[in-house]
Amino acid sequence: xxxxxxxxxxxxxxxxxxxxxxxxxxxxxxxxxxxxxxxxxxxxxxxxxxxxxxxxxxxxxxxxxxxxxxxxxxxxxxxxxxxxxxxxxxxxxxxxxxxxxxxxxxxxxxxxxxxxxxxxxxxxx
Length: 125
Known about the structure:
Blueprint: H1 3-8, H2 12-32, E1 37-41, E2 44-48, E3 57-62, E4 65-69, H3 76-83, E5 89-91, E6 95-99, H4 106-117, H5 119-124
Antiparallel strand pairs: 1-2, 2-3, 3-4, 4-6, 5-6
Helix pairs in contact: 2-4
């Protein structure tokens, strides 16, 4: 399966939000001076930052919205939950949930994306 096929497999109601997030991921990566590889992991459209820089960000349609998944052994979701308690819903320590029928806080989401794409670099200080 290709990245494009993973997006095409999503319900129509999620595609606009998936496209919006995709554009934001690339904009944030550009601002960070990096490129991300688009691939498919666990059947989900995924963005892989440069090695030793960050951790993979996966996205997929999820229960009436879109979910952005990170590796569950990171502390990212806990940080986001503390930083943006009202902006998003969260799923355990693995995902931030984005509705498809509401305005998206792109500034907060850009912080979430940047922290994912730079997770390992930032841990090293």
